Amino acid sequence: MIRIKPILDRSLFGVCNYLADKLGIASNRVRLYFIYVSFVTLGSPVLIYLFMAFWLNLKNYIRKGRDIIWS
Question: What is the pTM of this model?
Fold first, then answer.
């Protein structure tokens, strides 16, 4: 489990980690709030989460492309 946790944090919770870094709070707290809000609103934040995951992935892809050009 110790080896799997960092992989899961990077792949599944990248959005929560990103938001936590931007807001300056613990990522566990962001995950809990996301879960609570998902239950209260019947899962609609899942669409926001998927959009943000896509956006962050696209942003990282563009940055990697820029690094290759400027290297």
Answer: 0.57
pLDDT digits (tens, 9 = 90+) for 17-67: 888 888 898 888 888 888 888 888 887 888 887 788 788 777 777 766 655
Closest C-alpha to 60, from 12, 24, 15, 28 = 15
Query: How far apart (Å, rounded) are the C-alpha atoms in residues 1 and 18?
Result: 23
Is residue 44 classed as helix, strand or coil in its secondary structure? coil
Which residue, among 46, 47, 56, has the nearest Cα to 15 in the 3D structure?
56
25 sits in the region (left: phi over 0; alpha: psi -120 to 50; else beta) called: beta
Q: Is 25 helix (H, G, I), strand (E, B) or coil?
A: coil
d(C-alpha 64, C-alpha 61), whole Å: 5
